[in-house]
Amino acid sequence: MRTLLTILTGNRILILLAILLLACISILYYYHSAYANSLELKKPNKVPIINDPNLKVEIVFKGLKFPTSMAFLGPDDILVLEKNNGTVQRIVNGQILKEPLLDVNVATQSERGMLGITIAKNASEFAPTYVFLYYTEAESKDGEDFGEEGKELLGNRLYRYEMINDKLVNPKLLLDLPASKGGSVHNGGKLLIGPDNNIYLVTGDNTISARLLNTKAQNVANGSAPDGTSSILRISQNDKVALKSILGKEDPLNKYYAYGIRNSFGMDFDPVSKKLWNTENGPGFGDEINLVEPGFNSGWKQMQGIWKPLGYFTRELELNPNGDDDDDGNSNDLVDFDEKGKYSDPEFIWNETVGPTAIKFLSSDKLGKKYQYDMLVGDIHNGNIYHFDLNENRTQLFLTGALYDKMADNSDELQDVIFSQGFGGITDIEIGPDGYIYVLSLAEGGGNDCDTFLFFDKNCISYRAPLEGTIFRILTATTKEEEDELSIQE
């Protein structure tokens, strides 16, 4: 009898363990499926659709390897970054040069890699053109940070190169930032040269887990000093001219233009107001468009959208982030660096995440006066470009109908602001010297990293996959050249 009871008890334990294992598998699968669905991959149309019959789209170049950013050297002359190869490719008149301008060692796990570029041309013809690059630097080869035995990376670094004889040479290290703070995601990376001729770099919180966030720049009141993460940093082009600090005198806080940023893949200056705007990626909710004033606090990790994050997909409404303690005695106060920092609500929120990336103001009138100075925003999940008008003071988006509350509750509410669709996954948007829109796109949209999950599905891609990239150009359906040709024929 005792033996039988032992067997039965043992069987019960085994059955219980099996049930618990199945439950864990179900939870993990649900979590992954939910995450993957929120980052659903979409194949691009053979030809992306422009929702204006007066415009058309054409391919400039196809065949890039996981491109992340681009910048123009001149008309029909584009530099493009390839994330996992650590390369800067040059495309002239639709043809790629045989050799890259630069090939450096980059860490490639998840969102690490060759990430950001901006170009400064010197006024003197005898002075070199400066090319600024932001990338996650590896010691000896690409991808050596990956796997259980992956090597420690050197850091997220901003360099200034000189363009001499079709090569990028004489690297000068301007910023050396953390890159292994508990995860390989949220490195940010977009670079800009502002109206003040200074360099602006956006960084994320550099971690996959909000529990690991511990600096005041992530609104942890008792946290450590800011370390360059969760920021928009501003420095001079040679890092020698002392810029007036906004939030404090200690380094690197003295470089912070904005803070409290979870992660961002886009920012641009309004050519009319000269004010900075950015996009911000939420977890499973709350993607944002923000007007970024000096000292701007975006609220992370205490705020995302209009919610206080409780988990990846869970949240609670928070309409008074700077208010008094709540009913449970929890402080709602955000870090303000002795009242130098200021939180403000997003100017637009996606309730369901779309992964906004590039944001660009159309300074040209080549597509028609009705688009000039308007805002375009691309996304990585759906391959959409959204079009927004601004109000008269250019401090808010001009929104009507279902978007009047500054929030898209679902995809149906976005239909009136979709300018174009079918680009796969958009990583950058630039306005070319010709005044037309250039779109850098991956062959598939998405953003979740298969390598970090136990279960895979058809919607999952790896950030290390050699995804093909394409540069598109959006222009008028009848170009000036075509009009001149027609007039000659007549």
Overall description:
With 490 residues, the protein is mainly β. It has a domain at 69-366 and 384-417: TolB, C-terminal domain (Neuraminidase, 6 Propeller), CATH 2.120.10. Helix content is 10%, strand content 35%. The protein is built from two helices and 32 strands. Strands 1, 24, 25, 26, 27 and 29 form a six-stranded antiparallel beta sheet that branches. The longest helix has 37 residues, at 2-38. The radius of gyration is 24 Å and the shape is globular.
In a few lines, what is going on in this structure?
By secondary structure, the chain is mostly beta strands. It has two helices and 32 strands. The relative contact order is 0.14.
CATH architecture of the domain at 69-366 and 384-417: 6 Propeller
CATH fold topology of the domain at 69-366 and 384-417:
Neuraminidase
Q: What's the pLDDT, averaged over the residues?
A: 84
Distance between the termini: 105 Å
Strand fraction equals: 25-35%
The geometry reads as globular
Q: What is the overall number of helices?
A: 2
- Unreliable stretches covering 5 or more consecutive residues: 1-9, 18-41, 325-331, 446-460
Oligomer description: single chain
Quick one: CATH class of the domain at 69-366 and 384-417? Answer: Mainly Beta
Radius of gyration: 24 Å
Helix percent reads: under 10%
What is the structural class?
Answer: mainly beta
Total beta strand runs: 32
* CATH-level-4 superfamily name of the domain at 69-366 and 384-417: TolB, C-terminal domain
What characterizes the major β-sheet?
A: 6 strands, antiparallel
